[in-house]
Amino acid sequence: MKNPRMILHLAMGVALTATTLGVAAEELLKFDYWPGRENAIPHVSGDEKFSDTYQYWKDEKAIEQAKKAGKKSHEMNFKDFRWAQKSFDAEPALEIGKGYYNQKNANGKSCASCHGENGKKLEGIYANYPSYNKRLKRVVTVGTQIQTCASERLGLDWPETSRENVLTDFYVASLSDGKVIKIDATKPGPIKKSYERGRDLFFKRAGHFDFACASCHTPPTAGSYLRGQRPTTFFGDAASYPIYHFPYALPGDDYEYVFTLQHQIKSCQMLSRMYPGKEGSPAMTDIEVFLKASANGYKMSIPGAEYNMDASYLD
Amino acid sequence: MKLDTKRHYLFVLALAGTLSATAVSAANAEEAPKWVPGEPYPTELLKNYPCHDYELPCGKMNSPPVERVVFKGPLQGDAERGEKIAINLRWGNCIACHVLPNHDGGTIGPSLRQYAARQAPLDYTYQRLWDVRYYNPNAHMPVYGPNKVLTHQDIVDVMTYLYAGK
Hints:
The complex is a heterodimer of chains A (315) and B (166). With 315 residues, chain A is mostly helical.
């Protein structure tokens, strides 16, 4: 080979090679965390320290005004189409979820037996999840809660990766549409700890490419076009999850194109070549706590329309 | 595909040196999945890199050390192959973030059209492609070299395509 490359594994201290070639030895630098971790706060307004676009999408009115003023989608951190608009295409999936909610087991019991007709007693709860489950002694997502309830109360096997679980989750979330998200991650306790662990995972470099979640979801990448995708900051988006994600689905899933936050995290991991986490695992739950708390103060919007069919940004 | 003669040579040496060890690793190699550039990356292999988990060993791994590399040229790669690598989603995928010669792309990184006009030294470009962290620890770019996303020959071919591109 005419042009041999010479790799100096500086960190491993191949001092002899380095000296021979007259290259000064350099210190080992570890870049385990993407920058910005210390600026994250558990409230949607925390976006001000990242993208400086919060004023354009903090509520329906702000979005409307920014659009009128001619702000383009990418100038609004791509938040303009992530919220407020409802997805009518998702209605059938919600109906299926409601069906599972009312589905009776052999003893004639269903979710509705305890939680009320039409989910009466579950209204608003999705805005406060993930939550600490005292009996299980851990923080749980709604998916984990449904799995536990189904197996313990109804004798049904509804793991977090099952169609029944995901679609019931979607239905339960719709009962909190319009509710303001509130995950108390400032009071000392298990939720605060979970938030901090989740934040650290979000900023930790991982995978084949050595990216962090934050690599795409903080500026300058957030707000730029990533091929056909439109990465945005991590604030506020959790308000529209589970999301109706047509035409996308995870390999092998059968959830009517519904993505819970757990599936979204997994999908992101797979796209950026990281070893995908298991839905509801402690680490994945921590990431969800971080994302949900980063939407604190924002209104839930279920079923939200995620996709922006407006192509005027191409002009 | 071009044969990497240096690699080949090393492989022959290893084969001669440790016959028994080679036999064992060959048996393992049959079972272990192998990534074919351009194909989906086998999930099992991702456990070799840092991950988001508290139980698995990959959850405790750190980023690979920064690698300083030297490339003096001359640049005599295969531009056509370089273009294929640059636009393939499951290979180099430069197009995800960069506008490229003959191709529209993302807006995250700078446009790489007319790259030669920048008069960037070969060594500089090679280092950026191998391990960007040497120049910018926070650049949003895969660590192509240290994590074996691209080989030396792949990078030389991509560079040949970029420097020749309009």
